[in-house]
Amino acid sequence: MKYTKEHEWLRVEGDLVVVGITEHAATALGDVVFVELPEVETVVAEGDEVAVIESVKAASDILAPTAGEIVAVNDLLVDNPGLVNEDPLGAAWFFKMRLDDLSVLDDFLDEDEYNELIA
Amino acid sequence: MVPFADYEMPVQYPAGVLKEHLHTRAAAGLVDVSHMGQVILRPKGTLAETALAFEALMPVDVLGLTAGRQRYGMFTTATGGILDDLMFANRGDHFFVVVNAACKTADIAHMTALLSAACTVIPVTDRGLLALQGPAAEAALSRLVPKAAAMRFMDVAVLEWGGVPLWVSRSGYTGEDGYEISVPVARLRDFAEALLHQPEVMPIGLGARDSLRLEAGLCLYGHDIDTTTSPVEAGLNWAIQKVRRAGGARAGGFPGAALVMHELAQGPARVRVGLRPEGRAPMRDGTELFAGGDKVGAITSGGYGPSVAAPIAMGYVAAAHATTGSTLMAELRGKMLPVTVSPLPFHPTTYKR
Fold this sequence. Notes:
The complex is a heterodimer. Chain A is an alpha+beta fold. Helix content of chain A is 19%, strand content 36%.
């Protein structure tokens, strides 16, 4: 598992990268009531706003952690946004991306570095 | 914790906004609103003279408020805008006023400048303020302070708890029955803990307080009302008693009266309405509203309503588009999404009248 400073996690699954938000982020957001996901086949650049997540408290954007193509989205979240609080690291993945080059993942934070960031 | 009007305030406690909100509607929630401004107006002459001086700042009947009762009011600007909204109580020989935290310095200056001939404006700095809200508020508070049970909506009384004089009003800002209780700072923590020991009571933060007042259709100063909105546009006509309207014994005579009286007679050009987004996406302050391609208004408060279980909002809309049931389009992240003009409140109020 790799992490971004924006509190997303990235998990390699074959030649794809699965993206979600960390438990820390889910807790900080509070009860999630709305999730908007990108269209499949969207080509995104690093930092693009690709998804929206809203809690009772506030709205926040999920940014593309790196350049690539969105190849799958987790429609379960649209009908059950609360899954983000229940299982942020598992069932509540947001989208899967195909990257041109998986080696860019080396630049992201590892678990120790991320834990240090949120400590 | 977040900074709010120079105070560090909890947005939520461990239960989270959603549970805090729903618990308040089902049982009772306790909010620390000690950041709000508490002010005493101590008459130099008679209470009636102070009432009449106070009426010169607000389009509200102060003179007719009987002892032991509280009323909602608002300071208006010379152009009919709102400087702040407030609660004021007749406590027999003086008035007790509660104003918004962000406005309190300006409000105290405003009152000191304009009321000093009639009364002494005394900021109450040695008391905190707690709001206990929800259907079980009466049961919880009256276990500590039995006389609280006999109070009706908007009654005020000084009740004693273990030798501590509590300034209690049966009111709040959630749409629920409940109380606001002014407590000496030295005993504030003890009293809050005594309330939290009652099985019905859960602490709630600013987040739930906001979602509760939004569902109740109540205005948040700085969002739904400010110096650019008039009381009539804001739909606060109910707070302008007949005696201050055209034909009333003390009609007009407050800042901005010409505009407010004109709007009361002719109807305002725009009006605050409830809005229900048709989809699941919450729409927040600043979201623009369109009809037939023309901008007709904007959202001033919005979010998810936990008891409504859907997104809800309030905003200002041109009068021609403000009819209940009208569909408008809201621009959200580059998309046009339908919203329906809806009656307020979104959740029925349960005041103990």
